[in-house]
């Protein structure tokens, strides 16, 4: 055997995170993560679980009893939602207008479902008329949509209209709120969404590890009356009910520290007020958008469905997206991301999420981006960008 590896103490770089997630974590959340562990069945942890559930209900705007943090990242809560709701033989309708609709499709297929699609180009939302037509044609049992499409910077408007269409066909609605929860208006109960899942490291500014999920009684009744067991043991909600429901009995060891972190991140949401938090994202990301446009760049999504938490900006002629992104990381310790799939090479993805959605980050981003483009010989106006953002922030 070789000698023990000589590895340096951990000193990660101090980045400013303005990509598609994770976002900058609030110092209070980091502090919560360095508090002592208790056991996952400790009476004090049971209280913490209850508090997290209460705070999650507030953040989702729901009274659903079935509101929990799923162990794992956003994809775990996504798979818990789809894997439990979709039974073999069920048909699920999913969107084609972004990367995460494609992931819904993969998960529904693995759950044994038939998948049908409602089409819209990458960079546009679903049209309710197309959803209606897809329902009339396919009569799906479950309809999934992405409220905030992180791959395209598109916010899905008209959610109540979509849920009405689904419910008039007796279908269940699953919403991906990974990049909207805690940053963009979302109302699970008022909008009649049956199941919504999210992630902690986007607008909640919490490290990844415990991911919000909520189901109403109607959806949970379907899950609890499945004929065939859910294919995942780990994410089986009928088993997780034993831990997060009344019994509080062992299923798997909860990621204690991630639950602490989520509790603190949600406490910050409650202190700020959920509606005030939505307003802050609109205001601060609005300044980012004004700045980017004043610089001479173009947003990818039309204003009507611009997503404040994820700004998709067209890569200008003469710029190489990869070079700009590397320059920002190397010169400024600033993270943004490139496009995915159909938009690969066409857009920058600039997050404005949670704790990262603040005037300091936006100003830093605009000045750094102007410099990065200038360094590539692209003619942009950094001063105009900063003036436009400042004017917007002053209100
Ligand atoms: C990030 C993201 C996910 C997946 O979350 P992970 O934490 O990466 O597993 C799902 N849906 C959307 C819209 C996302 O942005």
TrEMBL record:
GO biological process: glycine biosynthetic process, by transamination of glyoxylate
UniProt-annotated stretches for the region Disordered: 1-26
Keyword Transferase: yes
Domain named Aminotransferase class V: residues: 38-339
Keywords, alphabetical: Aminotransferase, Pyridoxal phosphate, Transferase
Pfam families: Aminotran_5
InterPro entries, per the entry: Aminotrans_V_dom, PyrdxlP-dep_Trfase, PyrdxlP-dep_Trfase_major, PyrdxlP-dep_Trfase_small, SP_NH2Trfase/AEP_transaminase
Cofactor: pyridoxal 5'-phosphate
Protein origin, superkingdom: Archaea
MF-aspect GO terms: alanine-glyoxylate transaminase activity; L-serine-pyruvate transaminase activity
Family note: Belongs to the class-V pyridoxal-phosphate-dependent aminotransferase family.
Protein known as: Alanine--glyoxylate aminotransferase
Organism: Haloprofundus marisrubri
Organism classification: Archaea, Methanobacteriati, Methanobacteriota, Stenosarchaea group, Halobacteria
């Amino acid at each position: 055997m070789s000698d023990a590896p000589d590895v340096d103490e951990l000193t990660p770089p101090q980045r400013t995170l303005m990509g598609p997630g994770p976002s900058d974590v609030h110092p209070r959340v980091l502090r919560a993560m360095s508090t002592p562990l208790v056991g996952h069945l400790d009476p004090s942890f049971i209280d913490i679980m209850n508090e997290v559930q209460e705070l999650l209900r507030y953040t989702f705007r729901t009274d659903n009893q079935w509101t929990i943090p799923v162990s794992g990242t956003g994809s775990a809560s996504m798979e818990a939602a789809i894997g439990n709701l979709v039974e073999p033989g069920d048909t699920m309708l999913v969107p084609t207008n972004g990367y995460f609709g494609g992931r819904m499709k993969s998960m529904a297929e693995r759950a044994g479902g038939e998948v049908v699609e409602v089409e819209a180009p990458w960079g546009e939302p679903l049209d309710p008329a197309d959803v209606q037509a897809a329902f009339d044609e396919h009569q799906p049992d479950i309809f999934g949509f992405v409220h905030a499409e992180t791959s395209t910077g598109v916010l899905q408007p008209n959610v109540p209209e979509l849920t009405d269409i689904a419910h008039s066909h007796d279908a269940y609605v699953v919403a991906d709120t990974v990049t909207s929860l805690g940053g963009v208006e979302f109302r699970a109960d008022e909008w009649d969404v049956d199941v919504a899942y999210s992630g902690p490291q986007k607008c909640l500014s919490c490290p990844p590890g415990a991911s919000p999920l909520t189901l109403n009684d109607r959806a949970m009744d379907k899950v609890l009356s499945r004929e065939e067991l859910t294919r995942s043991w780990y994410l089986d909600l009928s088993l997780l009910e034993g831990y997060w429901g009344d019994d509080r009995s062992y299923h798997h060891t909860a990621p204690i520290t991630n639950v602490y972190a989520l509790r603190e991140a949600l406490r910050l949401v409650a202190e700020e007020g959920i509606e005030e938090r939505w307003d802050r994202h609109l205001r601060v990301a609005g300044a980012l958008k004004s700045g980017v446009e004043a610089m001479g760049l173009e947003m990818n999504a039309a204003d009507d469905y611009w997503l404040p938490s994820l700004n998709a900006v067209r890569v200008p002629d003469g710029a190489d997206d990869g070079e700009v992104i590397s320059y920002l990381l190397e010169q400024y310790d600033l993270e943004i991301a490139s496009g995915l799939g159909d938009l690969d090479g066409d857009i920058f993805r600039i997050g404005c999420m949670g704790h990262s959605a603040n005037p300091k980050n936006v100003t830093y981003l605009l000045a750094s981006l102007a410099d990065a483009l200038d360094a590539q010989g692209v003619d942009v106006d950094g001063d105009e960008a900063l003036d436009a953002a400042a004017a917007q922030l002053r209100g």
